[in-house]
UniProtKB/TrEMBL annotation:
It comes from Mucilaginibacter aquatilis. It holds the Pfam family cNMP_binding. It comes from the Bacteria. This is Cyclic nucleotide-binding domain-containing protein. InterPro entries: cNMP-bd_dom (IPR000595), cNMP-bd_dom_sf (IPR018490), RmlC-like_jellyroll (IPR014710). Residues 35-120 form the Cyclic nucleotide-binding domain.
Amino acid sequence: MNAHFELITENVSKHVMLTPAEKDLFTGMLQPKQIKRKHHWVANGDVCRHSAFVISGCLRGYTVDQNGYEHVLSFAPRDWWMADMYSLLTHQPGSLNIEALEDTEMLLLPKSSQEDLYKQVPKFERVFRLLAEKSLVAYQQRLIDNLSLPAAERYDRFCKRYPTLIHQLPQKQIASYIGVTPEFFSKMRKAM
């Protein structure tokens, strides 16, 4: 089996055991995609038609407010999934931008194939339900943190959630994720 497919099947196997035939069916639905650093996979206004699994590199999901400021919602390093969930589930244009922070290789699972997968191998509903639940919990906790915690504690939670990204990402990306200016973030890190 291709090394790319091994990583994604290992990811799925954290939730369910797959037979060789189920693995073949699943990997046969995946579409390899490469994006260069600073290129978008999904842009505001696009309809997101795939879930992406990151093989190498890193994606960031962000929005831009009416003043032109970027607000990072999430990152997807190696072995993580990402999509504009609103757009993927409603088939409506989304508001999320998903950009490669470095050259990134991904495997795309079309939404239509995901639905076929649910019918042919019902245990995949469990996989994607668990991924959705985990994502919902993380977003809820992140919202509560942003409303109630000081920046230093939000940074600490970022470090726990994304330990591999602490030294990999530019400081301005981390600052945007925790909701502070790059200048404030720099001063805060020096004080810590």
